[in-house]
Amino acid sequence: MKHSPLDRFKKGVKSWETVLLGLLFAEFVIFGIANPKFLMPRVLLGSVNDIISICIISLFVTFVMITGGIDIQAGSIVGLSSIVIGVTWQDFGLNIWVAAILAMAVAALCGALSGFFVAYCGVQPMVVTLGGSFLYSGIALLVSNISATASYKGISGFPDNFTQIAKFKLFGVIPSQLLIFAALTVIAYLLLHKSKFGRKVFLVGVNARAAEYSGINSRFITLLTYVLSGVSASIAGIVLTAYLGTAKSDIGVTFTLPIITAVVLGGTLSTGGKGSVIGTALAALVIGVLRFGLPLSFKVSNQYLDIPVGLLLLVVVVGRSIAANPTLLRKLGIGKAKGQKNKA
Amino acid sequence: MEQSRNSAPGALLSVRGITKAFSLNAVLKGIDLDVGSGDVVALIGGNGAGKSTLMKIIMGIYQPDGGELFVAGEKATLGSPTAALARGIYMVPQEPLLFPNMTVEENIVVGFSEKPAVLHRRLVELMEENGWELDLGRKASSLSIAEQQLVELLRGLLRNAQVLILDEPTSALTFDEVESLFKCVENLKSKGIGIIYITHRLAEVFEIATHVAIMRDGIITLSGPVGNFDRDMLVRGLLPPNMETQADKSINEEVSIDYTGLPPVFELQNYSGYGFSNVDLKVYPGEILGVAGVVGAGRTELATTIFGRDKVLGGKALLDGADITGLPTKKVLAAGINYVPEDRHLNGLFKISDVAANTTSGLLDQKELGKFFLNVKKEAEITQKYVDDFRIKITGQDQSTGSLSGGNQQKIVIGRALSTSPKLVILDEPTRGIDAAARGDVYNIIQQLRNHGVAVMLISSDMEEIVELSDRAVTVFQGRINGEFAKKDINQDNLMAAAFGVTGGKQVQQ
Amino acid sequence: MNTLKKITKIREINSLFFLIALFAIVGMVNPAFLSPTTLFNCFNDSVVFTLLATGIAFVILTGEIDVSIGATLGLSAAISSSLLRDGSSWFIAVAAGLLSGVVVGLINGFGVSTLGIPSLIFTLGTNGVVRGMIYVYTGGAWVENLPANFTKLSQIKLFGNLTIFYLVVLLAVIAAHIALTHTRRGRYFIAVGDNAAGATLVGIPAKRTKIIAYVLCGVLASVAGIIYSSRIGFITPTAGNGYEMKAIAACVLGGISLSGGLGSLLGASIGAVIMSSVSRILVFLGFSSDYDNTITGILLITIVVIDALTQNRAATKSRHERLAARTGPAHAKKGGAAK
């Protein structure tokens, strides 16, 4: 029997992870040659700290996007979690670990609220999470106002055993953040690709009605993906707070677009039903390394970094589109010759 | 059949030698077709025969790889729908493609350049001529399917279409609506408009068509005036050569079920919901209960409500004595009922997922597939069992179901329904849109089920199917059961009459 | 009563009612809000968002999205301002700014419509690239020292309180709205968003319409950038950051459905006024500006949830009615024979 384009595409996605791995490898080679300092373990592993938050959240936003949804409130939840920890620890005297758990619970609630509106009220995910991004960043600001400390300053002075979770280095080289990311990658992988829950997530994303007819509670599964995403944002918030040593309400506000970029770059279809944790993890690393390597090895200043990331996304997405539909090229060739007017 | 490369004289539309291939897949292998003024050409063909591709070429949505089109005797290149519309060709799609948020009138006149007042007048005149009543100010999203089709028809007529393509126009209509449609078609015929009428229903062909053409596998196997053919000839034209036209009769033993003292496994008492009311029904283990009726009678709504997809308005549903009224789908499944949806594309298949995922999707809450982690080995075993038992043709368990033929897709959905070992299986139009060979396989499966003591509710609009398979039958008319038939009384006349509301169906004493 | 029902079915009237009600309530709490200066300023200050929301409304109505308009605003602002600062004529500066919007719009239209790439993803990519281009163009520096007669333009008022900018924009929006709803080509946008396949079948050039929508969006965003320059007086490389989200929120508040095919430009402009008035309203209600985001979020979510619930309820109701109609006359007890 012939392999349909669908089958070829499926195989394509699987090997997409190989492509990403190749990209990562190429980055190492290029940046390493341009500036050998790039390859020094201390430098390389040290860079990780700036990007891990985005990587962590991307893992779980993958779940949301597989169900055909999107989550643009995760960035705001990061700040909310951070400030909740700060305020409850400093101004309410809560034990720091209890404060962290509380932050995770709050995040779960935020995710559940949006997930409820998406799954049970039928509201579009983009709008709900857009509203959520305003709401939760607003609440974060209000929470920080409760504190005695001025919000722009941020709350600091956390106990060492807390900040250690982000500063600890295994064997003196491997940063704890990387370990946390690795652990979460494993958890996300098992959850999405090996568990029955993960299978349900995929099925809901491919055809929610057929999932219902198979006895799967599509709506609840969808809600849960938003909860997962929210909790992952709070974990990122906890780790970031520990790393910076300061709790602020506005950290994470710029994370949204990089997160979505990482998930899409990782092979997840925005229409749902297809995605991969490994792909997302690799893509997040590719983006992170790109943003680190370019300034270090090519003296590209930070402000210009959006261009290569944006270009990478465009190239990948356009390339995938053409690969899946080769007649497009022919059409383009004809279209260009005759001028654009006849393209109905 | 003419082999000349010229248009047939006087034909409104002629196509000659049309070929079309997608990637390596040749869909049309040389089609010749003529539509004359006042003709109704019934175009019949199974799924994958290439009908919709041919229609899209005529509508200018696709361009043919080879061959020619002639409109009113002149050679024509239809590069876009606008070109086809300009030439007076219009297609009423099977699923009306209206703009849900616009009103009826806006839907009809969108794209015209004349003044709205002028168009309004023409539209009103057109409707009066045909005796149609429709509130032009209603939002399209509130229309019934029949009303939507009417709007699509009006679009074509307002454009002074000379050639109308009707794609399975009756598939979603009630009996009255079908009659209305036929009247409309006669009217159009008398005006000299040429119609291509795509249908699966052989009965309609003899009722309304002037010519018939059968498509199979990208070619036309039979064509000519409808008077030259009878049903058997048409059926033979549909099947691949060297294929037995009779399904394997040996399986259908004339064994009657002994109902004495047998308690029903499933019972509905005065059961009401959206689309049906006051239904009393019993299904016994090891029997096939045929549920006949026309499209829109309420059978699917009955099934989906039993299955927990819609609200129960009254009455009770009992499975083996346990009350399962109003339970959510998950619990109904767990209790022992499963359902093969009417529309497998919409509600049954996970097209981009693979065969294994599709087959086992109903088992994800059972322990068989593992507690937390998915037992991939078990999944493969279960899937293989169905692949083997049902003779499902796949390249591997990892093949995505979207690329399978209709028959194989349907077998997978049936397999999934059976994987939960239900006591009652409800099959809703299980052989719709699948080829004859797969149909035979499905009949086998259904009879095996029955032989194993499972109760089967077979909902079908295909009277022959009901007659062939059922041990008992009920007919549903306008949401109510209006006839119950024992095996000896099950025949097409009785069923057809009752399905169309003509009472006289004898009550069966249990 | 029927006319009232009919009127409330028009979504932009609902948004207008909401705006009026909102202003009225705030006025009741703090009558100082109802002073002509304040009220007019609510409109005057919404001019940039009105342009952005109207532009993105074209795209959303066709069923797509564009998250690059903030960056387009920034690019156009940077280009036109720096040209003005360096002594170019207004004509050249404005033309250059508009051109940048057209180019971005064409690229977006090409990617989404011709290549068929999901619009969120593609415009996400162009957003990144355009954002970076702003840095490349300005070298990371601010653009300042704009000619005074340019910046003064934003202050010119007519009828005492309405800036000429807002007046012109409002008239343009009204004209565009009429074109969209009453001309044949204008109706194409909504048709494409309502049912793209259906649109093709009746001969509407769906792909071309989407490209035009993106170009219009880009142009309006670039105009917004020029007006923004005049109002603010200097351009930072992060100008326009996050504006796309606010513009989308404005559209939603104005009754535009993100799935396309429903809503209007007037609605978008009303939503823009609501969005940009939130912080001013909060001040008059005695809340610090810290509450801005929270209130905006609550507003957005509430409106969108109510809208979804009412639409779902209406759809379910009509489906149930249709099904009930099929069952014929009701019988109270079983045993009644069918007709």
From TrEMBL, chain C:
Residues 319-339 are annotated as: Disordered. The chain crosses the membrane at residues 50-78, 90-111, 117-137, 158-180, 211-228, 248-274, 294-310. Pfam families: BPD_transp_2 (PF02653). It is a multi-pass membrane protein. GO terms for cellular component: plasma membrane. Keywords: Cell inner membrane, Cell membrane, Membrane, Transmembrane, Transmembrane helix, Transport. One of its GO terms (molecular function) is transmembrane transporter activity. PANTHER family: ABC TRANSPORTER PERMEASE PROTEIN YPHD-RELATED-RELATED, AUTOINDUCER 2 IMPORT SYSTEM PERMEASE PROTEIN LSRC. This is Autoinducer 2 import system permease protein LsrC. It comes from bioreactor metagenome.
